[in-house]
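sorry for the late reply, my laptop died twice this morning and i had to redo everyting from scratch. anyway the thing you sent over, i finally got around to it. pasting the sequence first so we're on the same page, its 342 residues, then the predicted structure underneath. double check i copied it right bc i was rushing
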Amino acid sequence: MNMIFERKLAIPMEVKEMYPLTGTMSQVVEQRIAELKAIFEGRSDRFILVIGPCSADNENSVMDYMHRLKNLAEQVKDRIFVVPRIYTNKPRTTGDGYKGMLHQPNPEEKPDMFKGIIAIRKLHMRLVQETGMAAADEMLYPENHKYLDDLLGYVAVGARSVEDQQHRLTASGIEVPVGMKNPTSGDFQVMLNAIQAAQHPHTFIYRGWETHSQGNPYAHAILRGSTNKHGQSQPNYHYEDLMLIHDFYAERDLANPAVVVDVNHANSGKQYIEQIRIAKEVLHSRRYNESLRKLVKGLMIESYLEDGCQKPGGGVYGQSITDPCLGWEKTEKLVLDIAETL
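ok and here's the structure:
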């Protein structure tokens, strides 16, 4: 093979032994998962906000953000269930660029995968211990999920991964809600096929084991917009799009039909300020149609301490080094507005 095998990395069990959860931390994660499942089952009518930086690039600024988010979440907890977004690995369209904390714990230094594994586990542990919340992370590499599976409250499968067999089968063996994004082509049927696969049991190879998954009844749709053949962003958050996915869901025998709308990415054309308008339009659609109120369970918002983005090494504390995000002031106002509207 055209690879250099540098070193054998610690397996998840070994890393968990080095950095174990306390009993209290495990209880926090279990409680947060139970609350989230109640929303997807329709037993709770709280609205989900998966919110946080595009990529978790710096432990200090991420935790600064998370402490602010915790305080904000407390203010709206009767109406909104906040899931902090801590994305520790990033898909890259061309393969170039910062691939996340897993690859580079320090974005200005060369990749170090072992340090990255430790860094992402410690960051997620800090969130649970210091805020009493459990985060969302993207499952970019299915075989790495076990490093964090005892810490996460929510998992997302990205637009470039949703058609991959291993992602679908691994999702079927995950116990927390898993959001399956529509592919970059925008094909709803591809996304629904992924959800169907994730909701059913399978036998497959995972980390060198023959495994038997039980199926994940909390696999659901994330609408993130699409890109046409000319490279132009095509949104799919409008009322007509939501009614279409509602009708497609009705044609299938899927458990817990649910949609989370990603208000950035191709839905906003990565114009981060548009997230505010898009969020309010989705909420209007829910108010207008009772079926959509039941189906659309939440939003995914990219937000950090400072507006916009910068290149790695730009020096602006709390500003994204990947996709542009809403800054904290706009985030706080938006979350309070959403709570007022619900």
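The mean pLDDT is 97.
thats about all i looked at so far, will dig more tmrw
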